[in-house]
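Reviewer 2 asked us to include a model.

Predict the structure of this chain.
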Amino acid sequence: MRSFLTIATLLFLFLSKGLFAQEPQSYNFNNTNGLPTNEVYACYETEDGKLYIAHDLGLSVYDGRNFELITPKGVKEGESCFGMKISNGKLWFKYSNKRLYYLEDDELLPYEFNKEIGRLKYSILYDFEFTDDSLFLLIDDGYFTVDNQGRINQFNKKTNNLIIDLEAKIMKRFVPIINDTFQMHFAGKKFQVNSMGSIDAHYGKAINSDSIYFNKDVIYLIHDNKIRTHTLPPLKGNKYHSSLIVSVQLIDSLLFVSTRTKGVNVFKIKQGKLEHQFVLLKGKFAGIISKGKSGLWVPEVKGGLHFFPNYKIKNFKTRNKVRHLYPHKNGLFYTSLNHVDKDPINVITNNQIIPIDTFKLPLFLKEFYKEKFKSFGLDKLGVIKGLSLISSHPIAYRSPQTFVYETKELFVKANGAFISFHSRTDQKSDTVHLKGLLGTLRLDDANYIVYGEFGLNHVEIKNNLWNSTNLIQTKNRVIETQFLDQDHIAFATTENIFKFNLKSGKYDTIYSNHQSSLKCFLKDDDLLFIGTKSYMEVFDLEHNSSYIFNNSNGLKSSNIEEIRKFKDTIVLATETGVSFIPISLIREKLKTKHIDYNDKLQISPDREEIFVAIKVNQLNPLVKVYAQYSLNKGEFIDFNPNKLTLSNLKSGEYAIRVRLKFGNEKWIYLEERFFEVPSPFYSRWWFSASIVAFIALVAIFIIRRRNKITTQRLKTEKLIETLRMNALTSQMNPHFLYNALNTIQGLLSGDKKKVFMYVSDLARFFRLMLNNSSDLYIPIQREIELNQIFCEVESVRQFREVDLQIIYEKEEFADFIIPSMILQPFVENALWHAFTKEIDEPKIEIRISELDENTLIIQIEDNGIGIDNTKNRKKVHQSKGVSIVENRLKIFNESNPNISKNIKLTDLKNTDNAKQGTLIEVYLTKQRLNELQDHNH
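Predicted model (C-alpha cells):
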C-alpha cells in the first residue's frame, strides 16, 4: 500500500511539473526597444550603475534610459566585440580586429601592445589573462605570452592539453581540435576528457570558481580532493553539439549553466553533487551571465538581452487567488479564495504543488488527516475546501470566513457574524453576534481579541457566558492582528499599523501608508512586512529604511493577500499564486543604495547656474525614476534625475529639498541643502534708482512716439479707405448703370407696369448705395437691405427670380457694424457668374452667426455652378471689389488675434459630392457704432 502511495505521489509530481514551475520575472531588450542588435555575447554591470554590452556591432553602454554605441580609436564602426572580462583590476574587451581594450574613467583605451599581438597569424582569440608582468593569450594557433616589453613568446602550437595546478590556482587552457581529447591532471592522476568541440564559448574553468570545470555537456566538480563527473540531467541524450555548454558561473551559491540550445539551467551544489533547481531561460542560446547591483543580466546570443531584477524570487502560479498560507515542516499549505470541489486545499513541497484531497496525504501530513469538529458540522480535512491549519497548539483551522479553535474544554468558532463557544464537558455554549467580524486572536482558553469593522474587542468567558468589551474604535476597519510579545500586540487598519499594550490599553502608530490600501502584515525581528493592493513593503524598524517588492522587480502579482515566514523565506499569497522571497535577498536590498547625493553644491563662476549632482544607480527598465526639487519649502517641481540645474536665481539664502521615487514606491527625501546667492555690486539702491529713472524716461519717450505714429497711421488709413470707397463706387456705377439701362430698354416694349416697378427699385438701390458708401461703417441691417434690393433688380434683368434668404442667429447681430459695401461684391459675383441657364431655381442664403465672444461670421452660400467651375470658364471675371474688401477687412480686424484669415472661399463640391455651389465666409470683429467712436476718440 505504501509503495502504491509513493508511486502515485511521484506520478503526480511528474505530471504537475509543467503546471506549477517557477516563473522568474524578466524583461527582454532587443532591437525593437533600444538595443542596437539581437546578437549579444556578454555584458557587465559596473559599480557606478552602467551596463556594458558586447555584441556583433561592437560595444554599447546602457545607463538606465538609453543605449549608446561606443567605438574606441582604432576600431571600425560595426566591428564586433566578442567578449569582456575582469583582469588585473580592469574591465577588458576583445574585438574581432584582434585588439584588446580596457575601461578607465568611462573611456575605452587600447592595450599598449595591440600592434604586436595583431602581427600574430590567428583568426580567433579564445581567451586572455593578465598577470603582474605578462599577458597570456590563447588563440587558435597556440598559447602565447606578451611580457611588459611587448616581447611575444610561443609555448605550444595546436596543443590539446589542459593543465591544472590546484595549489598555485593557475590553469593553463587550450582549446583542442574538434573530435580530439585533452588531459586533466589532478592529484597525480590524468583524466581523458572529451573534446570541447566548438569555438563560440568561454571554455574550461567556471567563472567565479576555482573547483568547477566543464566541457561540452559535462561538468567536473572537485570536492574533498575528489573529482566528480556530471552530465547535466536536462541536457543528457542530445545530439552532438546540441547542448554544448557555453559558460558555467557560480553566483550566490547557485551554479548557472549557459548552453547553446537548452537556455540557462540553475543547479545547487550539495556535497559535490548537482541538484537541479529551476530553468532560468528556456531553450535559448545563452551567453555569459553577469550579476550586478540591479539584478541578473543574461545575454541571448540570437535574441537580445534578458534582465532578471530578482532572480531568487520564486513564483508559483495557481488557478485562483491564494487567500491563506500555513508553513509546516517540509511544505506549505495554501487555500484559494473560492473553496469549491474543483479548488482543493494544496500543499507546496519540493518546488511542486500537491492537492491533498486528490491523492493520499504524504507521510509527514498524515497526522492532520482525521476527523475534526463533527459537532460543528465539519468533515475531514481532505474534503473541507478552503480550510488550512494555522496553529498547532491549540489546534486551529481557518477558512476565508471561519476561525475554529480546539482546547481541552472548548470548541471556539468565529465567522463574519458571531463568535461562539461550545463546552465539551457540560454542553454549555454562548454566542456573541458582531457585525463585520474579520478575525480572532487567542490570548488564552478564556480570552480572545476579535477584530473587524468595529475595531478591537476583548471577548472573555465569565460564568459560562461571553463578556464583550470594546477596546479601540478605529476610523478604518481592523484587518489583522499579531502578537509582538507577552504584553503587546500589533493590529493593522487599511492605512496604519499600531502597537497595542494589553495591560495599559494604550496604542501607538508604528507604520503609516496612504499610497495603497493595507491588506496584511507580518513582524519578524527588526523587519516589518506590509502587504498592500499594489506591493509588499519591507520596513527596517532599526535603521528606518524600506524596500518595495512589486511586479517590476520579481513578483508575478503585486496584490498581496497574506504574508508568512517559512524557514529562511518570506512567503506571499497573491492574486495569481504564491511567491517565495529569501530573507537574505530582502536584507541585501535594504542595504542597497540607488542614490548618491553630493555633499557640496557646485556653483559656476558666473553664479548664474547652480548644479546639484544626484547619481541614480538604477538600470531596471521596469522601474521608472521620478525626481522633484523644492526651493524654500515651495512646491515640488519635476527634473531630470541625474542632474539639476538652477539658473537665474535672485540674491539671497536658499534651502533646497530633493526627493526621488522608484516606480510606485514611496518618495525618498534627501537631506536638505543650503546655499546663498550673493548680491552683486549693481544691487545697491542708488544703482537700482538710476536704472528705474532711465527706464521711466525711455518708456515715456516710447509711449509718446507710439501715440504719434498711431495717430498718423489712423489718419492715413481713413484717407486710404475713403479713396478706395470712391474707386469702388466709380468702378461699379458705370458698369451697373449700363446693365440697368439695357434692361429698361428691353422692358419698354412690354408691360409698362414692370418698367415703373423696375425704375422705382433701381432708384431705391442707388439712394441706399450712395448713403452707405458715404459712411465708412454701417449696421449689418443696412448692408443686408442694400443686397436685397440688388437681388430684386437683378432678378428682373435676368428674367428669373433669385431666392434670397437672410438668417440671423441672434436679432442683436443686426445692430453690429461692418465696413460699408462689404457684402455687395460677393452677392454680385453670385448673380452674374454662378447662376447659369442650367440652374433652375437660383438661391442665395446669407447667415449671420457668432464664432466666439469677439467674432462674427457672415456666410454667403449659393447653389450655383461653384467657384472652381467659374474660374475655369473661358471668360474669367476678375472682381476688383473682392480684393478691395480683403484689404478693408484687414484694417477692421487687426485688433482681433483670433482672426487669422478674413475671407474664406469654398467650393461645396470639394466637401460634399452631393452639394453644388459656393460658400463664402467673412470674419468680422464684433463692434457697435458707439464702441467704434469711443475707440477712435
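The two ends are 114 Å apart (CA to CA). Residues 685-748 form the longest helix (64 residues). We have added this to the supplementary material.
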